[in-house]
Amino acid sequence: MSAKTSSVPLGLLFAVLAFAIFSGHDAIVKAVGSRYSVFQILFFAGLFAFIPITLMMSTDKAVDNFIPHRPWLIVARSVFNLIAMSAAFYAFSVLPLAEVYALIFATPLLITALAVPLLGETIRLRRGIAILIGLAGVMVVLRPGTTEYNLGHAAALTTAVGGAFGAVIVRKIGNTERSAVIILYPMLASLITMAALQPLVFIPPTLTDMTLMALVGLMAIVAQFFIIAAYRNAPATIIAPMQYSQILWAILYGYLFFDELPDMWVGIGSAIVIASGLYIVLRESKLEVSQTSPVLRNPNMRPDAGPSPRPKLHEEIFTMEELGQ
Question: For 165, phi and psi rounded to 5 degrees?
């Protein structure tokens, strides 16, 4: 058994831990979202995430380290990241966790569709059908005409769209921009925007709530490092599908902490969307099917966790040298 093969179980373990932490992160957002504006939560979460990230980035002494080569695309990613984060936090605060995930899981489908005009990707018949089936699954979750919609549903779909645009932009600039640049500017844009909104939304938090908000930011960083570790130990085709394990954690956390259980239609719709996403991941793993692999190389759907690590070691976010370790 090769060293790479023997490390696959370890990679899977890191992936399971990462997405369990991300789902816990979302459960905390839901808990404090009933008491505070999502902009306040985003500000303090971003502040506590920004501190360790900037400390790690400061170890890189390259003079042009943080100068973007394609600034307008960095600005675009920052805008989409900000929209997706705000929408996601709001959706989690007002909808059941599993229902939000069912809608956000449309992100890989949208990435594949957007890759046609933005990356020059060609979608063949099978992937095109998978996209349509996946979107039909979203409609099963929404059940037009039978479900009473609120802004949370619109926010969850906005998260999927914003996250898809952001992921495609990362794929487009990933070969020319350093990961530090791709991470730093959206974080700065979010922090500055949320700070500017605080006079309008700020409510003095209790010590417990402040701790929870800080934990949201720190959990996102820890989970992202687990994802990096997962990709260092196992192929992307194995790790990328693990993102869908979040629906299981969402059901568990929703039941334990919020007395939530998804209904049959959310379950059926989620299964359809997940099956379509898995099919697209497997199809993109074949070189003759996809040259750019927009989903496989952007498997992380989290808008608040930076760009997803790519399969090649030299392309990963924060190599050990970049971390100063």
Answer: -60, -45
Distances in Å between the alpha carbon of 152 and those of 92, 193, 304? 8, 22, 18
Return the DSSP state at 177.
Answer: S
Is residue 65 a contact partner of residue 185, using CB atoms and an 8 Å limit? no
- Dump pLDDT digits (tens) for 283-325: 777 656 666 666 666 656 566 555 444 333 333 333 333 333 3
Give the integer Cα–Cα distance in Å for 278 and 217. Answer: 29
Provide the residue ranges of all domains of the chain, joining segments of one domain with +: 3-315
**Residue count (the chain):** 325
Q: Is 298 helix (H, G, I), strand (E, B) or coil?
A: coil
Segment holding 210, helix H or strand E: helix 207-233
185-204 pLDDT tens trace: 888 999 999 999 999 999 99
pLDDT at 265 > cutoff 70: yes
- CA-based torsion, 162, 163, 169, 173: positive or negative: positive
- Asked if 209 and 36 touch (Cβ cutoff 8 Å), the reply is yes
Q: Spell out a b/e string for 193-204, using b for 16 or more CB atoms within 10 Å of the CB, else e.
A: bbeebeeeeeee
Output the six-digit token pair for 72. 């307008």
> Can you list the alpha helix ranges (DSSP code H) found in 120-178?
125-142, 151-173
User: Quick one: CA torsion of 14, 17, 20, 22, rounded to 10 degrees?
Assistant: -70
Instruction: Compute the Cα dihedral for 33, 34, 38, 41 and give only its sign.
Output: negative
pLDDT of 162 higher than 70: yes
Contact between 59 and 287 under an 8 Å Cβ cutoff? The reply is no
